[in-house]
Amino acid sequence: MIYFQARPILLELGFLQVRYYSLMYVIGILVAYFLIPHIAKKRGIHISQERIAEDLLIIFASILVFSRLFYVFIYGFDSFARNPLFIFQVWLGGMSFHGGLVGAVLGGLLVAKRHKKSFLRLADIFVVPVPIALALGRIGNLLNGELFGRVTSVPWAFRFSTDPALLPRHPSQLYSVAKNLIIFFILWKLYHSENKSAKKEGFIFLFFIFLYGVFRFAVEFFRQPEIELSLGIVTLTAGQVLSLVMIAVSLPLLIRLWRDARASGK
């Protein structure tokens, strides 16, 4: 059993606070900034570092807005109703991946228009570093002492200082970190492989959506649910329902691209 003391603040300088959660986002952007040129070059696309910085700023701003709005109105509406300023308190955590995905797509469409290139072609490039950024975000959640797991008796259970009951719980944030790193390595290997399907425009992007949906659905079984939905004979979390939507949308498209690759031989 591990007692985990939440440590959201890295540094305090008077009224200025440097929080781990915000720092994780900055590191995630930097990882993308340095990886994307290498990935783009592999696909024969040249994007200057200056343009990449501008693109990431557009996409990140869109992700920030939509992930926060989605979290507040789906998961944290009670907090918003008590204090409308809650919507701006992003440094406290509370960002939704699924809302962020919507924001990323909208930001990506704008970036594709600026480059005058196919959205899916650019999405295949920009999506590869995303799992690393997501893993860093979950480390931020851990340090904030939020999004912890269900009560358990496993020997590696954590007692979180932010849990009023101090019950032993799954460190589901760490499960999510592992999940995202696994997804990154799969995408990285696939991107550098000679797989014919992987070279199809949009395949890497859709494969990320599929993988994330599958892994997120599984991890939700260990995470303390914020919202549960009864669907007849089963009860699923809101995250699982949204993950099933991701799987249902991406899988048929992946199969179609796979079949096209086999039929064309390239």
Strand order, sheet with most strands: 1-4-5
Please report which band the strand proportion falls in: under 5%, 5-15%, 15-25%, 25-35%, 35-45% or over 45%: 5-15%
- Strand segment tally: 7
In whole angstroms, how far apart are the ends?
53 Å
Principal-axis shape: globular
Question: Structural class of the helix and strand makeup?
Answer: mainly alpha
Evaluate the radius of gyration.
19 Å
What is the averaged pLDDT score? 91
Sheet of most strands: 3 strands, mixed
Helix content: 55-70%
SS field, number of helical segments: 9
The total number of structural domains is 1
Low-pLDDT sequence parts: none
Helix/strand order:
EEEHHHHHHEEHHEEH
Summarize the SSE layout with pairings:
Blueprint (H helix, E strand, L loop, with lengths): L1 E3 L4 E5 L2 E4 H23 L6 H26 L2 H6 L14 H19 L3 H8 L3 H15 L13 E3 L7 E2 L2 H20 L11 H17 L8 E4 L2 E4 H27 L2
Parallel strand pairs: 1-4
Antiparallel strand pairs: 2-3, 4-5, 6-7
Helix pairs in contact: 1-2, 1-6, 2-4, 5-8, 6-7, 7-8, 8-9
